């Protein structure tokens, strides 16, 4: 009997839709929620279990005993049918998590689907209205302590403001259309944390935020994405929604420590934290710095950008070196091992091969203007 049930489960698992986790799409699920009737990976099964048995009842496909009625339920529903119900009204700006995405995103996606049923009842989606107000913990620019700050998101104004004191002028006004937002759990050592990145006076500024409630931080993340999508729709009325969704933030292409030389061949390698944000390669002294020490705009191959293994002539070899060629300068870089180096080369090449968008060109122009200003100051300086 038990053996027969296991056989039926293995057959069901081969059906289209059931061969991938119902929530994150990872291959070969080994678990199931037998009241909802879906096949799950181990990570998503863990989230289902945490919601409690009144929402989801979890079993292993092989290690647990299955009753006939439970098998019937799996037959009756399955991943595709469940998706039609629980994902019926997912807004286009909502980021559907994939296998390796941050835990908070996976967890809140699953809770939004089955616990809050946000995608069956769109009026429960507080992040699509274009307005959000609340308090978030924000890291100080200099003192690294987190303080509670009031934030107001206003899509029609294209602004995200934050206040040090309520009922006073905002401390900063960020433009939503120019804002990037990413989850930063490892870097900030907090599960429910966000990094906001934007251009200010020709240079990038980073802001680090968290909230103890994972639902609230995820709502802020989705609210910024939704507002960004609506601003894009205003800016590009003839573009399709599916194309515009591609421009929404979904994390940095890569981050990590690299070693970098100065502009002179005799300069030694210095350890820097590198972040590739779309076409901007930034380097910092520390991962949580408010400003990068320097930033390099990565243009298109046709404009003289390329990346190669090895250092340029006259530079001392170190670690796993590679060079980034831009029309103005060759950057000698080094990773701690060859795997890291190859990953960096791969993500940089991908950017170099991609055509520039009008937004890319605007960022490039503003970064270049900054550099020109610095140069003109040098001309008048004593040396
Ligand atoms: Zn999963």
Automatic annotation (TrEMBL):
<feature type="domain" description="PH">
    <location>
        <begin position="129"/>
        <end position="229"/>
    </location>
</feature>
<dbReference type="GO" id="GO:0005886">
    <property type="term" value="C:plasma membrane"/>
</dbReference>
<dbReference type="InterPro" id="IPR037278">
    <property type="entry name" value="ARFGAP/RecO"/>
</dbReference>
<feature type="domain" description="Arf-GAP">
    <location>
        <begin position="6"/>
        <end position="127"/>
    </location>
</feature>
<keyword id="KW-0963">Cytoplasm</keyword>
<feature type="domain" description="PH">
    <location>
        <begin position="251"/>
        <end position="353"/>
    </location>
</feature>
<dbReference type="Pfam" id="PF00169">
    <property type="entry name" value="PH"/>
</dbReference>
<dbReference type="InterPro" id="IPR001164">
    <property type="entry name" value="ArfGAP_dom"/>
</dbReference>
<dbReference type="InterPro" id="IPR011993">
    <property type="entry name" value="PH-like_dom_sf"/>
</dbReference>
<dbReference type="InterPro" id="IPR037849">
    <property type="entry name" value="PH1_ADAP"/>
</dbReference>
<protein>
    <submittedName>
        <fullName>Arf-GAP with dual PH domain-containing protein 1 isoform X1</fullName>
    </submittedName>
</protein>
<dbReference type="GO" id="GO:0005096">
    <property type="term" value="F:GTPase activator activity"/>
</dbReference>
<dbReference type="GO" id="GO:0005547">
    <property type="term" value="F:phosphatidylinositol-3,4,5-trisphosphate binding"/>
</dbReference>
<dbReference type="InterPro" id="IPR037851">
    <property type="entry name" value="PH2_ADAP"/>
</dbReference>
<dbReference type="GO" id="GO:0008270">
    <property type="term" value="F:zinc ion binding"/>
</dbReference>
<keyword id="KW-0343">GTPase activation</keyword>
<dbReference type="InterPro" id="IPR038508">
    <property type="entry name" value="ArfGAP_dom_sf"/>
</dbReference>
<dbReference type="InterPro" id="IPR001849">
    <property type="entry name" value="PH_domain"/>
</dbReference>
<keyword id="KW-0862">Zinc</keyword>
<keyword id="KW-0863">Zinc-finger</keyword>
<dbReference type="InterPro" id="IPR052589">
    <property type="entry name" value="Arf-GAP_dual-PH_domain"/>
</dbReference>
<dbReference type="Pfam" id="PF01412">
    <property type="entry name" value="ArfGap"/>
</dbReference>
<keyword id="KW-0479">Metal-binding</keyword>
<dbReference type="GO" id="GO:0005737">
    <property type="term" value="C:cytoplasm"/>
</dbReference>
<dbReference type="GO" id="GO:1902936">
    <property type="term" value="F:phosphatidylinositol bisphosphate binding"/>
</dbReference>
<keyword id="KW-0677">Repeat</keyword>
């Amino acid at each position: 009997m038990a053996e027969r049930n296991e056989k039926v489960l293995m057959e069901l698992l081969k059906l289209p839709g059931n061969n991938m986790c119902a929530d994150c799409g990872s291959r070969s699920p080994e678990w199931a929620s037998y009241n909802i009737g879906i096949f799950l990976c181990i990570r998503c099964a863990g989230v289902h279990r945490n919601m409690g048995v009144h929402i989801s009842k979890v079993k292993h496909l092989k290690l647990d005993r299955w009753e006939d009625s439970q098998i019937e339920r799996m037959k009756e529903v399955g991943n595709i049918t469940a998706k039609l119900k629980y994902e019926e009204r997912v807004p286009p700006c909502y980021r559907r998590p994939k296998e390796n995405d941050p835990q908070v995103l996976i967890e809140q996606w699953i809770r939004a689907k089955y616990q809050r049923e946000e995608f069956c009842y769109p009026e429960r989606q507080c992040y699509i209205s274009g307005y959000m107000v609340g308090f978030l913990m924000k890291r100080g620019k200099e003192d690294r302590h987190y303080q509670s700050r009031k934030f107001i998101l206003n899509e029609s104004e294209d602004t995200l403001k934050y206040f040090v004191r309520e009922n006073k002028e905002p401390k900063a006004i960020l433009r939503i259309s120019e804002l990037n937002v990413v989850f930063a759990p490892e870097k900030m050592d907090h599960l429910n944390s966000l990094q906001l990145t934007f251009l200010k006076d020709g240079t990038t500024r980073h802001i680090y935020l968290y909230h103890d409630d994972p639902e609230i931080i995820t709502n802020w993340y989705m609210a910024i994405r939704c507002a960004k999508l609506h601003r894009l729709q205003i800016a590009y009325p003839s573009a399709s929604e599916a194309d515009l969704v591609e421009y929404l933030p979904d994390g940095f292409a890569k981050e990590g420590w690299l070693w970098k030389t100065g502009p002179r061949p005799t300069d030694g390698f210095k350890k820097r934290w590198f972040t590739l944000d779309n076409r901007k390669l930034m380097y910092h002294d520390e991962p949580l710095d408010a400003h990068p020490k320097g930033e390099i705009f990565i243009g298109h191959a046709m404009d003289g950008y390329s990346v190669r293994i090895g250092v340029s002539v006259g530079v001392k070899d170190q670690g796993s070196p590679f060079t980034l060629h831009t029309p103005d300068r060759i950057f000698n870089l080094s990773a701690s091992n060859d795997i890291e180096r190859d990953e960096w080369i791969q993500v940089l090449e991908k950017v170099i091969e991609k055509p520039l968008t009008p937004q890319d060109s605007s960022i490039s122009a503003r970064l270049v203007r900054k550099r020109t200003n610095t140069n003109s100051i040098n001309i008048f300086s004593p040396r």
